[in-house]
């Protein structure tokens, strides 16, 4: 069985190659190929091309591994599963906002052991291996600690369906007066890496899928953050929370009474 470091090395090489392809092939305004949950939840041809490249590179080296991709779903089965978001932040990619990423994580026996988030427009590649820390450009990352809720810069995101957005707006209206400020990047993977690097203090969001938070969540956890859902649940599409211990609990207790997992 390969080590976490072996998986990380392969994932990083693939994430870098996919990022280079996306930069080289991105037109001035990418074409919307399809929509998913709503008319604002878009897929471009390069989302699919990126995932196809990533799947092909994984299969060249590890043909028996399972792969979960945002665009292609699950293929294969086994102890090792790759969790892939070929472009996290597709709307940013569409508009030329420099906040989108290639995210690749490796799961062994149900545990994420390696993760890479390549924030391509910024040339930043965040990496983490289970027990080996989180890293950016040779520097070990540590999340901010000891920050009280009323001084915390909190990242969040919004869904695509109108009913979900309406509830998220209600929740945000309650949270905003009780924190330093809110940031919304448009990429969950980027938000989690920003938390690991100390650029924000906390993160919460209703709706992220496993491919959104698998790699970035490991980066944040290896930087010292706590990652989870409400009421002791693991992170999940209902609600994902992340912050240093202490702030995590404060943010949790602010959000929980608001029933943020509901949709209108």
From TrEMBL:
EC identifiers of the protein: 3.1.3.25
Cofactor(s) needed, names only, are:
Mg(2+)
Report the record's Gene Ontology biological process terms: inositol metabolic process; phosphatidylinositol phosphate biosynthetic process; signal transduction
Give the matching InterPro entries. Answer: IMPase, Inositol_monoP_metal-BS, Inositol_monophosphatase-like, Inositol_monophosphatase_CS
UniProt KW keywords = Hydrolase, Magnesium, Metal-binding
UniProt GO MF annotations: histidinol-phosphatase activity; inositol monophosphate 1-phosphatase activity; metal ion binding
Its pathway is: Amino-acid biosynthesis; L-histidine biosynthesis; L-histidine from 5-phospho-alpha-D-ribose 1-diphosphate: step 8/9
User: According to its UniProt record, which reaction does this protein catalyse?
Assistant: a myo-inositol phosphate + H2O = myo-inositol + phosphate; L-histidinol phosphate + H2O = L-histidinol + phosphate
Question: Could you say which residues bind Mg(2+) here?
Answer: 70, 85, 87-88, 212
Gene3D superfamilies (alphabetical):
3.40.190.80, Fructose-1,6-Bisphosphatase, subunit A, domain 1
What is the purpose of this protein?
A: Catalyzes the dephosphorylation of histidinol-phosphate to histidinol, the direct precursor of histidine.
Q: Which family does it belong to?
A: Belongs to the inositol monophosphatase superfamily.
Provide the protein name: Inositol-1-monophosphatase
The scientific name of the source species is: Planomonospora sphaerica
């Amino acid at each position: 069985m390969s080590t976490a470091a072996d998986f990380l090395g392969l994932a990083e090489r693939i994430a870098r190659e996919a990022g280079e392809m996306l930069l080289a092939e991105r037109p001035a305004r990418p074409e919307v190929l399809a929509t998913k949950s709503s008319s604002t939840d878009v897929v471009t041809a390069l989302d699919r091309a990126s995932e196809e490249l990533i799947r092909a590179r994984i299969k060249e080296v590890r043909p028996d591994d399972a792969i979960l991709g945002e665009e292609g779903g699950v293929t294969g089965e086994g102890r090792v599963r790759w969790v892939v978001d070929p472009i996290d932040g597709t709307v940013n990619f569409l508009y030329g906002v420099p906040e989108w990423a290639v995210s690749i994580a490796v799961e062994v026996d149900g545990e994420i052991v390696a993760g890479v988030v390549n924030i391509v427009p910024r040339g930043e590649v965040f990496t983490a291996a289970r027990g080996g820390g989180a890293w950016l450009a040779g520097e070990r990352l540590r999340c901010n600690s000891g920050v009280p809720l009323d001084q915390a810069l909190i990242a969040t995101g919004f869904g695509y369906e109108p009913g979900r957005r309406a509830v998220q707006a209600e929740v945000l209206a309650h949270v905003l007066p009780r924190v330093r400020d809110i940031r919304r990047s448009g990429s969950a993977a980027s938000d989690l890496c920003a938390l690991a690097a100390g650029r924000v203090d906390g993160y919460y969001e209703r709706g992220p899928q496993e491919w959104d938070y698998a790699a970035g969540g490991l980066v944040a956890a290896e930087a010292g953050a706590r990652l989870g859902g409400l009421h002791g649940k693991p992170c999940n599409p209902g609600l994902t929370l992340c912050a240093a211990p202490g702030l995590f609990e404060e943010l949790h207790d602010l959000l929980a009474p608001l029933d943020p997992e509901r949709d209108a």
